[in-house]
Amino acid sequence: MAFGRRNEEEIVTEDTKVWECVSETCNCWIRDNFKSSETPKCPICNSDMSLTSKELQVIVNHSKNFIK
């Protein structure tokens, strides 16, 4: 019997560009394809952010309002 058993989909990950807050006390980060300006400020503490990369699940941003 297989009651309650779910077919789990494979999670697809890839190396993704992200912006990380440079503040030592803040751990906020934003995916590059979800940023609101060319060089974003941290939405939590308003500090500068630096570009780096992380291994993350693939998410596509279909919004036309994001900056490339």
What is the alpha-carbon Rg in Å? 16 Å
Poorly predicted ranges: none
Largest sheet: 3 strands, antiparallel
Give the helices and strands as they follow along the chain: EEE
Give the percentage of residues in beta strands: 25-35%
| Overall residue-averaged pLDDT value | 86
* Helical content band: under 10%
* Number of discrete helical segments: 0
The gross shape turns out to be: elongated
Number of strands: 3
Strand order within the widest sheet? 2-1-3
Please explain how this structure is put together:
There is one protein chain. The chain is mainly β and 68 residues long. Helices cover 0% and strands 31% of the residues. It contains no helices and 3 strands. It has strands spanning 13-21, 29-31, 49-57. Strands 2-1-3 form a 3-stranded antiparallel β-sheet, with no helix packed on it. The chain is elongated, with a radius of gyration of 16 Å. The termini are far apart.
Task: Using brief descriptors, characterize the structure shown.
single chain; 68 residues; mainly beta; 3-stranded antiparallel beta sheet; 3 strands; 0% helix; elongated
Q: In short, what is this structure?
A:
The chain is an all-beta fold and 68 residues long. Helices cover 0% and strands 31% of the residues.
Layout of helices and strands:
Blueprint: E1 13-21, E2 29-31, E3 49-57
Antiparallel strand pairs: 1-2, 1-3
